[in-house]
Amino acid sequence: MRDEIAPARGGVKRALAPRPPPAIFLALLMDVLFASAFQSISNFFLQGGIFMVPLLCLSVLAVTVMLLRGFALREASVMPAVIGDEVRRLEPGDELGQLTDLIRENPAPLSRILRTLVQHLSWPRTDNAEAVQTQARHETARLESGLVVLEIATGVGPLIGLLGTLSGLVGMFANIGTGDPMVIAHGIAEALNTTIVGLSVAVPSLVAHNYFMRKIEVMSVDMEAVAAELLGKCYPNPDQQPSIERE
User: Fold this and answer.
1) How far is the C-alpha of 31 from the C-alpha of 212, rounded, in Å?
2) Percent of the chain predicted with pLDDT > 90
3) How far from chain centre, in Å, is Cα 148?
4) Read out DSSP for 192-247?
5) How far does CA 63 lie from the centroid of its chain?
C-alpha cells in the first residue's frame, strides 16, 4: 500500500492511514461483546442478593452430576457388546471359557451380573436365579448413585428462588415509604432474579433426572434379558444340573 498519494488540489499531500486487517475488527468486536455480556451477567447475579450463592452452588453440583452420570451411563460402559454377542452365540453344552475371559477383560455391571451366575453354577437354578437378581439390584442401585442430587436440585432450587423472591419483596416494601426508586428497583430485581435462577436450576435437573432414570430402567431390563438367556442355556431343564460347565 502506498503511504502517500499524488498532490491533491492546492498542492497538499495527504497521507493514507494504514487500514487494520478485518481480524482486528473482529477481535475488538468479540472483546466488546464478551465484556458486555460478562458485566450483564455479573449485575444479574449481584442484584439477586445472598440467595444467589446457594443457587450457584446447587447449579454447579447439578451440572457436575449430569456430566458424570452421562459418562458413566453409556451403553458401552454398562453392557459391553462383546459379552452380549458371546451369550447369544453359546449353545447348551458349550464351555464358558471364552465368556469368562470376556467378563474378566470388560468390567461392567453386566459382567458382574453374569460372573455371579457363572460362579454359582453348582447351585440349583432357583438359587442361582435369586443370586443373579440380588446382584442385579445392587448394580441398578450403583447406576442410580448421584441422581438423588438432581432430585434434590429439582425440589430445592425453586424453594430457594422463592426465598429470594420473598426477601426482595420484604426489602422493597420496607423501603417503599422512603420514595427512593433505586431501593424499590433493587428489591424487584432480587425478587425476580432469584426466581429465574431457581427455575433455571430445577428444570434441567428434572429433565436430566427423568432421562437418566428411564435409561437405567431400559438397561436394567436388557441386562436381565441377557442374564435370563444365559441362565436358560445353562439350565435347559430346571430339574437338572447345568448343561454348561465352567472351563
Assistant:
1) 38
2) 49
3) 13
4) HHHHHHHHHHHHHHHHHHHHHHHHHHHHHHHHHHHHHHHHHHH-SSTTS--SS---
5) 6
CA distance 160 to 126: 50
Q: Using CA atoms, how far apart are residues 140 and 132, in angstroms rounded to an integer?
A: 12
Rg over alpha carbons for the chain, rounded to the nearest Å, is 32
CA 174 to CA 164: how far, in whole Å?
A: 15
Strand partners, 15: 4
Q: How many CB atoms lie within 10 A of CB 19?
A: 9
Whether residue 200 is predicted with pLDDT greater than 80 in this model: the reply is yes
Residue 42 clears pLDDT 70, i.e. is over it: no
141, 110 contact by CB (below 8 A) = no
Domain boundaries, the chain: 23-247
4 pairs with which residues across the strands?
Answer: 15
Q: Give me the helices (H) in 48-79, please.
A: 52-72, 75-78
3-state secondary structure of 168: helix
Q: What secondary structure does DSSP assign to 82-140, as a single string?
A: HHHHHHHH--TT---HHHHHHHHHS-SHHHHHHHHHHHTTTS-HHHHHHHHHHHHHHHH
> What is each CA distance from 81 to 75, 120, 223, 224, 245, in whole angstroms?
9, 23, 11, 15, 23
d(CA 156, CA 55): 9
Torsion of CA 50, 51, 55, 56, to 10 degrees: -10
> What whole-number distance in Å separates Cα of residue 149 and Cα of residue 161?
17
Report the SS3 class of residue 4: strand
Using one digit for the tens of pLDDT, what is the confidence trace for 60-114?
999 999 999 999 999 999 999 999 999 999 888 788 889 999 999 999 999 999 9
